[in-house]
């Protein structure tokens, strides 16, 4: 017999932060979305109440993103009815994600609020009966009206400014033929009274048509300007600051653009639109005004995002020069077809020599951090899916698969910890990370660490033989940083010791520096310096691991931390010497200060 207690497990968890709230909200969406239509009970009611409470804590944008997840299964009409009561973005995403049958839509549509019916009307695959029901309820506009109808409405909207013209029926025949009302080309003869009366409104009619044409043209210009302003994200403004002092068009530092499927700009900021619309960004011809590297054309062809691509534009002085291009592909909502790119151009400013040298120095570290970021993304995804399987979030799972998923999640966590250590080493070597300032007692930190390691070294009759004086050893390093450094160093050495091997450890104050000297294990003492500090992963599993990349990497990271603290980690024969900046006691400082004043 199998009991499904997933909903009760979720409800037992307390919400202690925003991250937990988001996780629990997604879990409730999955669990309630797959419940049968007739499922009810106190537990389900409590789940809907918890979902409503979590909706107050999570922004609408994040909830809408969860609902747009392709992995979400929303098959419950009751859950959909509750979600459409939320903000428009959430309601629209819920209607789009719903997977209901036609009979369920027929039962649900009459109970939906009017706003939610408006979202339903734009959904595909409703079925003829559901569409007929929407028609009966008055929800019939499932698309935007054609542009021609807007133009016709604009032509009919303005009334002719002719209230001052008298009605033709009210004019007597003898009053309808004054000379000033007759066009010059019509003869002034009595027998033409009737034709003249018929042609008399012609001048007014011509003025009315011209006025309507002018109004239509003004309407089109205004509407086109409004659309450009909306796309640019700014209100219409007067171009008073677009000219430089000499009357030339100012050189913009950046502008936004939109391309079609071929990579040709079809819209850009109004300031540069006359000069940029029509440019082909991914063209390879030498005659093309836009020249770029081959990578940009490859990215456009593969519909990939573009980051920091360099392009050269030849044209008007306002846009000519080197630019940096960032763009993302656009895909149509119905069908997901590719529609082009939208992005931004930023003008490249020549960097100073010092800045260029600094950029070259940091480029290797930046590339390494980028690689680590790209490695973390799939590992995080693997860990997340493994936890989903292990926790049975999507349904019952055999225990064998749950055990495998737990092992995968543990391996992923081990890899992420290794990535964090590698990232820390890169930042320390490049100077991008500084240790936390502070002070602590190094002797106390050493004694505490050795005591913590006794759980591993005691049963093996190995460990450290301490040689310390009964006095503090103050150093200018924060306590948390000193504990991390000493633990990394001593745990690495303890993991490399053989059973029954004891390492002598001594700490002393030498001048203004504090020193800790420890003997290397026999397995490491025979290695050369290059081999000792080489990062090689140990294939043999150990109860006390030095990290993902082995003993050499751990020692290199400890050396980088020591250097960042103002000290050094050195090898002296078969010993390692850790040197950290010490602190002078208050009484010594006062005595030295008095002596300098009196002298």
Comma- or semicolon-separated keywords:
22 helices, alpha+beta, 599 residues, 6-stranded antiparallel sheet, 5-stranded mixed sheet, disordered C terminus, Beta-Lactamase
Structure description:
The chain contains 22 helices and 13 strands. Strand 1 (254-259) and strand 2 form a beta hairpin. It has 599 residues and is of the alpha+beta class. The N and C termini lie far apart (92 Å). The chain has four domains: 6-136; 254-350, Beta-Lactamase (2-Layer Sandwich), CATH 3.30.450; 354-430; 440-586, Heat Shock Protein 90 (2-Layer Sandwich), CATH 3.30.565. Residues 141-207, 229-247 and 586-599 have low confidence and may be disordered. The protein is flat. The strands form three sheets. A six-stranded antiparallel β-sheet has the order 2-1-6-5-4-3, with helices on one face. Strands 8-10-11-13-12 form a five-stranded mixed β-sheet. It has a two-stranded antiparallel ribbon with strand order 7-9. The chain has helices at 6-12, 18-33, 42-57, 60-67, 77-83, 88-97, 102-108, 114-121, 128-136, 147-156, 193-199, 202-232, 273-276, 294-301, 353-390, 399-430, 442-460, 479-495, 522-525, 529-532, 550-564, 586-598; strands at residues 254-259, 265-268, 290-292, 306-313, 321-331, 338-347, 440-441, 463-467, 474-475, 502-510, 513-519, 568-572, 575-581.
């Amino acid at each position: 017999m199998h009991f499904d207690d997933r909903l009760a497990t979720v409800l037992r968890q307390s919400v202690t932060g925003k991250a937990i709230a988001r996780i629990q909200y997604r879990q409730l969406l999955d669990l309630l979305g797959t419940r049968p239509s007739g499922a009810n009970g106190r537990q389900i009611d409590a789940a809907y109440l918890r979902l409503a409470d979590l909706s107050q804590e999570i922004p609408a944008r994040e909830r809408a993103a969860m609902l747009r997840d392709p992995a979400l299964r929303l098959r419950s009409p009751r859950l959909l009815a509750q979600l459409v009561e939320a903000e428009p973005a959430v309601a629209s995403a819920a209607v789009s994600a719903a997977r209901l049958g036609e009979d369920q839509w027929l039962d649900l549509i009459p109970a939906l609020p009017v706003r939610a019916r408006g979202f339903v009307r734009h959904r595909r695959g409703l079925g003829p009966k559901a569409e007929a029901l929407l028609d009966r309820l008055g929800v019939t506009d499932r698309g935007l009206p054609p542009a021609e109808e807007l133009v016709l409405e604009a032509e009919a909207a303005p009334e002719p400014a002719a209230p001052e013209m008298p009605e033709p029926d009210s004019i007597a025949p003898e009053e309808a033929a004054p000379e000033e009302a007759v066009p010059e080309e019509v003869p002034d003869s009595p027998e033409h009274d009737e034709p003249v009366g018929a042609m008399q409104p012609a001048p007014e009619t011509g003025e009315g048509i011209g006025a309507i044409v002018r109004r239509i043209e003004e309407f089109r210009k205004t509407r086109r300007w409004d659309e450009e302003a909306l796309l640019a994200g700014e209100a219409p403004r007067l171009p008073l600051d677009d000219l430089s002092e000499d009357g030339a068009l100012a050189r913009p530092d950046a502008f936004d653009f939109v391309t079609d499927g071929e990579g040709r700009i079809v819209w850009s900021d109004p300031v540069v639109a006359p000069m940029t619309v029509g440019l082909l960004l991914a063209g390879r011809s030498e005659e093309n005004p836009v020249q770029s590297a081959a990578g940009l054309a490859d990215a456009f062809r593969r519909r990939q995002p573009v980051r920091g691509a360099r392009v050269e534009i030849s044209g008007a002085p306002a846009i000519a020069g080197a630019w940096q291009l960032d763009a993302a592909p656009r895909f149509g909502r119905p069908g997901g077809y590719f529609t082009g790119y939208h992005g931004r151009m930023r003008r490249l400013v020549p960097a100073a020599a010092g800045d260029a040298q600094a950029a070259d120095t940091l480029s290797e570290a930046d590339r390494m951090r980028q690689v680590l970021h790209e490695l973390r993304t799939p590992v995080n995804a693997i860990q997340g899916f493994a936890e989903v399987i292990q926790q049975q979030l999507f349904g019952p799972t055999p225990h064998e698969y749950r055990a495998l998923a737990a092992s995968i999640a543990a391996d992923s966590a081990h890899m992420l910890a290794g990535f964090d250590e590698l990232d820390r080493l890169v930042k320390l070597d490049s100077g991008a990370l500084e240790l936390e300032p502070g002070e602590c007692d190094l002797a106390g930190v050493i004694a505490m660490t050795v005591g913590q390691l006794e759980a591993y070294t005691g049963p093996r009759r190995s460990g450290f033989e301490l040689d310390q004086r009964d006095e503090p050893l103050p150093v200018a390093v924060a306590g948390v940083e000193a504990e991390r450094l000493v633990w990394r160093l001593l745990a690495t050495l303890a993991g490399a010791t053989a059973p029954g091997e004891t390492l002598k450890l001594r700490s002393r104050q030498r001048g203004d520096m504090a020193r800790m000297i420890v003997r290397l294990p026999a397995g490491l003492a025979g290695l050369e310096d290059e081999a000792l500090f080489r990062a090689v992963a140990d294939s043999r599993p150990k109860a006390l691991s030095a990290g993902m990349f082995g003993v050499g990497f751990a020692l290199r990271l400890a050396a980088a931390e020591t250097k960042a603290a103002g000290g050094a980690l050195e090898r002296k024969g078969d010993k390692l010497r850790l040197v950290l900046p010490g602190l002078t006691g208050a009484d010594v400082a006062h005595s030295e200060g008095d002596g300098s004043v009196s002298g």
